[in-house]
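User: structure tokens for this one?
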Amino acid sequence: MDFEFTVGGWELLDEIEPLWTELNRHHIESSTHFAATYEHMTFQERRKVIDRRPPGTKLRVELVMLKDGKVYVAYCVTSLAPDGAGEIESIYVDNGFRCLGLGSKLMRDAIKWLDEQGARKKRLWVASGNEQAFHFYERHGFQIRRTELEQTKSP
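Assistant:
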């Protein structure tokens, strides 16, 4: 398969919406306790969270497109705050294109960019129910630092 990689910043953020929606669907299906949270989360709300990053935050969006179909099949959004804190904001590879090394390439590219920008630390969040992703992140040098527990109001 032939892929085309596009890298940009804030101007590309809206392009991830269809794939982000699939990632959110994955969280709904895999989350034991927080599915309702994801059911009510929209891309516009997630976008607002990213847009509220401190002034001076740098954003890197990398998109992977299937050349033949002109369809995006993967993305990675990475941010760097003015204080040097880097974050893999979101990463997703469409189910039909997993195990081709796209996710690893996106992670390597994101980490390299953060290093080039002088990030003093790098972090990411893994949603409850998506623990199988730990091994992927560990292969890229990330380790579990803490576990956060949350109680939500019953309906």
